[in-house]
Amino acid sequence: MPKRVSTPCIGVCALDTAGRSCIGCGRTLEEIGAWPSLDETARRAIMNRLARQNRRESGR
Domain of life here (predicted)? Predict the structure, then answer.
């Protein structure tokens, strides 16, 4: 059985200047609100997007 995806939350809960995404975890407000009801496929898709976003921001 696949491992359950945990939350990407790092406890730094603050919005970006546009008020659309958390500067701690990178999720949108919609993703944060929906997280508890999302299935594992949807959670993994968000986690993959966050990983790609982090790689771009770090210049890799």
Answer: Bacteria
